[in-house]
């Protein structure tokens, strides 16, 4: 299909590129577009950064039809983000994707902005989600002396926390009750090398808090019961030495049976102990 003569110059680059791509695809497979038009059954959901250097299909070598995609600044999974939740719900419950990956990248401008003291406007509210990651991992980050190394680690920690956020959503919690729930992965992309690294994020630690995130009465009750027993045990452990101390307290000096009443300690107005008799 020819490009209209009225097409402005800045769009010619896009349309010409499109025509070239169509030609290449048809050369490889004349039915390519007819097959794609039948519908999609992607195996993967990609949650990545909006950064123009990190296109999901490009860096994973996947083609159209293979990867459902959601991108935002700094690849965040925010529980009030209706856009992300809609993509996630559709991907998990309708498309039944097998793998969900959160993909961050070193040199992420969003992560660097969150770690800086500068103000950027409205986006600072979005970046606050990354500052929460800093708060959670401040000790580890402060121990890294090299600035670039610290930012690289923050990129990784951000991915790890977003995978955990993913696991907490009602959509994934419900999917985990079914057979073969989607597998969650956290990856980081190195722009300087083009290599993707799997961070092998474990969501096992969420099991301890499952009774909070899973909307299931049985789990909720059992989990709360475990927590209550733990708290009761802590209370008992705390009270035990105090009780022991009381038992070991020396008997009042006036243990003489001839004395009418035992001595009693009280505080005077200066806070000093003073002996008095009732
Ligand atoms: Zn980025």
Describe the protein in words:
There is one protein chain. The chain starts with 8 loop residues before the first helix and ends with a strand. It is an alpha/beta fold. Strands 2-1-3-4-5 form a five-stranded mixed sheet. It has eleven helices and seven strands. The radius of gyration is 31 Å and the shape is globular. The protein binds zinc ion. Zinc ion binds near residues 109 and 110.
Descriptive key words:
binds zinc ion, disordered C terminus, Beta-carbonic Anhydrase, Chain A, 48% helix, 278 residues, five-stranded mixed sheet, alpha/beta, 7 strands, two-stranded antiparallel ribbon
Number of strand segments = 7
What count of helical segments does DSSP give? 11
Structural class computed from helices and strand pairing: alpha/beta
Attached small molecules = zinc ion
Strand content: 5-15%
Give the C-alpha Rg: 31 Å
Helix content: 40-55%
* Biggest sheet descriptor: 5 strands, mixed
**C-alpha end-to-end distance:** 106 Å
CATH class of the domain at 39-201: Alpha Beta
Poorly predicted sequence stretches spanning 5 or more consecutive residues: 253-278
Short description:
With 278 residues, the chain is of the alpha/beta class. The chain has helices at 9-28, 32-37, 56-60, 82-94, 109-115, 123-136, 138-142, 147-168, 170-175, 210-213, 217-247, and strands at residues 44-49, 67-72, 99-105, 183-190, 195-198, 264-267, 273-276. Residues 49, 51, 74, 105, 108-110 line the site of zinc ion (ZN).
